[in-house]
């Protein structure tokens, strides 16, 4: 898979400029970069869904693409989706059978046709399709989904895992994956990791999953326009290609940023010194001595000599200034940095639980025997796909009804829920408009959206429908943080968020002045978690402290 000089603009906004890199067969290249850097756009171009404004792409004929947000279908069933995904594999098996028949009949052109059909069939592993179907569905946690259900009726997570199952079963020559681990539990991530490590063709995937990048990527392509080797001034051209793992790249990038900042400071200091030389040399070197009677000619003589020396020194300094200004590095662009939790939280007071749950049941989905969320609670909720993690957050937030039991919430309690799937009532509205409408003009001006470090200045007035999924989730996070809740519920908070923001958010939540409950599959986050943890089992049962 080869990209040469690929560029793409949307109106006056440049997303990709002169992107070039190669993904060899058997290699797994991870795309990284800030939200909105162009990862999904680049995958769509490679898949042939969108056209670039410039540049060329060479890739295998059979390319499979996993979308970050799998489209809903009002008429397709789960069984129909899986059948469509495997139709091409079955067609390869029929082609091979037809070619074999032609060869047996003595067709003189059948030998070449049979060899090509056999090669395609072997690459697609057509003979193991039936056996692989059950293995893949079970590993991805969707084996029990009714095949007659409409795809539009299953959850977003199930839809994504079914699409991934269909993609893996179709065995394309090359894989394009957009955030493939967003809806996967540990078992499913391990299965996908093993599948990709054993894949013969090129794999290009965009991911914010730090542990997955470390385990799977054989190389990285950083689309962050703030820094690239081909464009050290940060104008957005080219990419940074790194032949190693994610953790190693973090160290390399940090060291490079440090060198860049140090070189900029040194060049600025040298420029100041040279400019001072130009402005101060004349006065410092002029003849100021006292003439004696027999030195009536020495003044003019020394004066001329000094003037020549001044001119020479100033000329040298000016030439060095001109050369340095022509080649100096620009100041490193200030990255979009999360500003943390705004002040003005407002404590609810007291040490009693903010939310108390006893023997609550959400039929068919969750059973909570005992759970208390206190003002200082730090709770991580884990469990397999479909165990009920999102349902538990919705129960605490009061957005799902229970059948029996008791859910008590403190009076005046403010609860904020960052959901997995973000939607806005008016997709044509800008982040600034959405923010001001939700908070009111007075609070929006007191805590400006731009000041939270979640939305770039260039995106504040773009329609939210034109933002990436990660950028939209940043807007949703801003709406919650601008009015910090007493209980902050986060459903897979690191999904779709850039690597830098995910880390900053985790650090900020550690010092959050209220209760924090997180449901997450993110292994990187879980390794760093210092608070309480509960695991929801397959039966959807929750008992705190177990």
Automatic annotation (TrEMBL):
Pfam families cross-referenced by the UniProt entry: ABC_tran
Segments forming domain ABC transporter: 1-250, 349-546
Molecular-function GO terms, alphabetical: ATP binding
SMART domains hit by this protein: AAA (SM00382)
Coiled-coil features, chain-numbered ranges: 250-277
CDD domains: ABCF_EF-3
Domain of life: Bacteria
InterPro entries: AAA+_ATPase, ABC_transporter-like_ATP-bd, ABC_transporter-like_CS, ABCF, P-loop_NTPase
Annotated keywords: ATP-binding, Coiled coil, Nucleotide-binding, Repeat
Protein name: ABC-F family ATP-binding cassette domain-containing protein
Taxonomic classification: Bacteria, Bacillati, Actinomycetota, Actinomycetes, Micrococcales
